Every structure is written in C-alpha cells, then in structure tokens.
C-alpha cells in the first residue's frame, strides 16, 4: 500500500517523523512517499536537520512558496494532482492547517483518493485566520480524521461529521516530545547570560496578527519589559525586521538570540520556568514539559489547556502580559493528549 504524505513547514516534518517511524516499525506493508511542497523555506532544514532528528528526507520537493495564499494553494494543487496521478497512492496523509494541507486534501478529493487528516478538529473559531479555513475545509474533505483531543472530537461532531470517520488517537506532538527530550541540547547563549534551569522565561513571537500590527508588537514587548523577568527570545528574522521598521526598542531584560533548531528549542522548553508565546505548537510543548504558558493571542485552538489553568490568554495587553509573567500560574488539572502512541494508532488505522 502506498501512502502519500504531504507537508510544507518544519513543524510538520517533526510531526510526520514520528508517524513515519511508526510505519517502518509496525507497518512494513506500507510504502510512504513524502512530499515537501516548499511552502515555508527554512534555512535550518539542512541535511543536519534531517539526520539529527532522524527524519526521512522528502522524496519530492515541489519548491512552491513565496506567493499569496491563493497563489501558493493553486500551484500546489496543480503539482500535487500530477504527482498523485503518477504515484497512485491508496491514501493521502496531511497534517494540521497549512495551505499545503488544504491543497493536498483538495487534489486528492478530486481524484477520489481518501484523505487522512492528523490534528483534526482543532478550532480557534476565528475565520479571519487562514489556518482556520484550511483545517475546517480539510476536515470536511477527509475520510479519516485523527483528533488529538476530546475537544477536537466534539468539534467535529458538532459540525455534523459522522462518528465512524473520527478517531481519537492523542497528539503526535506528545509522541515527538517524548522521543526528542532525550536528544535535547543547550543552545549557544550570550556569555553574559548566566541562566540556570528554571530561572528564565522562554518567549517566541512570530504570528502575523502580532508582528504586522505596530501597536500590538510594541505592547507585547512593553509587557515583557515591565515584567522584569529574565526573558530569552529566539527571534524570527521577520519579527526582528518588523521591530526595526517600527522603531521599537527591545527592553534590557529581553535577551534576543538567533533562531534555534528543534533540539535546542526542546532544551529551552524543558529548562525554563514559564513560556510566553503566540505559537500554537509551543503552547502544547510547554505543557508536555510541565511548564505554564502565557499565550499572546486573543484565542487558541488548545482550549483544554486554558480550561485546565496551564495556559492563560493575554492578547497584546502589556499590563496583563507583565502580571501573568510575574505571578505563577496554578494549573488545576492535566488535560489528556494520549499515551505517547498516537503515531502507532494512526498507522494501525490506515
């Protein structure tokens, strides 16, 4: 049986890696063909990236990226359709909420190839987010929907998706966190930054709703500064450019470092006291490593973390950001993201 896996961004490679490993270990009858659409160019995705993380390299790289959402999605559909006709897969496997995910699902549906969607059922209920449109449409195209949480399963039920298509398997990112925690390594930090485990806040800022709005970005950095906490900020080049363009001053307590690889990011998540982020994946990883999270967004797909007290939504309110970073969060209970074997369940189901 041939499974065509479609991915377009570095986080998706990490998710797909644990599923690919499960295919090899438990399903020798499956031949997986991996396609990278090229949606996100990432200089960190070198041979070292694949070798260190034990990730299979893509069989095809379509090299599509750099355009608008519509341009990219259209080009991807065209190229993926031709590739699917050539490879003749029995299943198409997609992950998450990128344009690559939607393009893969649409191309497969037109060719009557069943689609399996990993991370199905997530909802922010903000239709202004391209990611929300992508995942809603993909869920209604897919034949099998692998929900990471009970909340995700209920969202799918609420939208009228039949129960037989929905599989509650747990979160593949939990599988990945368990696997890569043993391989984590300390990043190169400034010599004058003498941090010990648990005495710093890890921060990431990259989401367009924050970086493209000067007032939001300024307010977020003000909140980080007002907290007085030691904050380590691996800064995305795009965010760094925006800070410069807007003339925003980075507070002295915010230590900006270059972007880090995944293994270094795991070390920072495992050794910080608290996480402040606008990323979806980092919110979960914080929880997997037992760290409270302050999320600088107005909504989140991971509502169970908010309900359990592990995650607090602060938007871009400087005062709220500062107070939440200073005052320890008190989680009430632990949400369930599976047993660390989501990838095994997925490959068994397919």
Brief account:
This protein is α/β, with parallel strands linked by helices and 350 residues long.
Spatially, the strands of the biggest sheet line up as: 3-2-1-4-5-6-7
Number of strands: 13
Number of helices: 15
Strand percent estimate: 5-15%
Straight-line distance between termini: 10 Å
Oligomer: single chain
Helix and strand element order: EHEHEHEHEHEHEHEHHEHEHEHEHEHH
The low-confidence runs, each spanning 5 or more residues with pLDDT under 50, are none
Structural features, described:
With 350 residues, the chain is of the alpha/beta class. 44% of the residues lie in helices and 15% in strands. It has 15 helices and 13 strands. A 7-stranded parallel β-sheet has the order 3-2-1-4-5-6-7, with helices on both faces. A 6-stranded parallel β-sheet has the order 10-9-8-11-12-13, with helices on both faces. β11, α12 (280-288) and β12 (293-295) form a beta-alpha-beta unit. α3 packs across α4, α7 (172-181) crosses α12 (280-288) and α9 packs parallel to α14. The longest helix is centred in the first third of the chain and has 19 residues, at 69-87. The radius of gyration is 20 Å and the shape is globular. It starts with a strand and ends with a helix.
């Amino acid at each position: 049986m041939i499974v065509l896996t479609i991915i377009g961004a570095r986080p998706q490679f990490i998710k797909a890696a644990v599923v690919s490993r499960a295919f090899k270990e438990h399903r020798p009858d499956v031949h997986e063909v991996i396609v990278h659409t090229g949606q996100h160019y990432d200089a960190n995705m070198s041979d070292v990236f694949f070798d260190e993380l034990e990730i299979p390299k893509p069989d095809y790289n379509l090299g599509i990226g750099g355009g608008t959402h519509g341009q990219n999605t259209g080009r991807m559909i065209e190229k993926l359709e031709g590739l699917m006709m050539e490879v003749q897969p029995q299943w198409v496997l997609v992950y998450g909420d990128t344009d690559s995910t939607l393009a893969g699902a649409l191309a497969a549906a037109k060719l009557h190839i069943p689609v399996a969607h990993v991370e199905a059922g997530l909802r922010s209920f903000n239709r202004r987010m391209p990611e929300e449109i992508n995942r809603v449409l993909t869920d209604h195209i897919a034949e099998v929907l692998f929900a990471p949480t009970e909340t995700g399963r209920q969202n799918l039920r609420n939208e009228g998706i039949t129960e037989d298509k929905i599989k509650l398997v747990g979160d593949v990112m939990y599988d990945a966190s368990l696997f890569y925690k043993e391989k984590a390594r300390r990043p190169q930090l400034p010599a004058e930054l003498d941090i010990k485990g648990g005495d710093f806040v890890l921060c990431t800022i990259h989401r367009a709703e924050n970086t493209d709005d000067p007032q939001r970005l300024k307010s977020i950095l003000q909140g980080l500064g007002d907290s007085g906490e030691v904050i380590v900020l691996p800064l995305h080049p795009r965010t760094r450019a925006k800070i410069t363009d807007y003339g925003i001053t980075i507070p002295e307590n915010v230590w900006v470092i270059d972007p880090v690889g995944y293994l270094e990011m795991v070390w920072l998540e495992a050794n910080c006291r608290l996480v402040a982020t606008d990323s979806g994946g980092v919110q979960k990883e914080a929880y997997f490593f037992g760290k409270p999270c302050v999320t600088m967004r107005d909504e989140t797909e991971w509502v169970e973390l908010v309900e359990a007290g592990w995650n607090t939504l602060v938007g871009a309110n400087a005062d709220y950001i500062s107070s939440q970073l200073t005052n320890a969060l008190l989680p009430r209970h632990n949400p369930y993201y599976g047993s660390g074997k989501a990838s095994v369940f997925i490959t068994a189901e397919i």
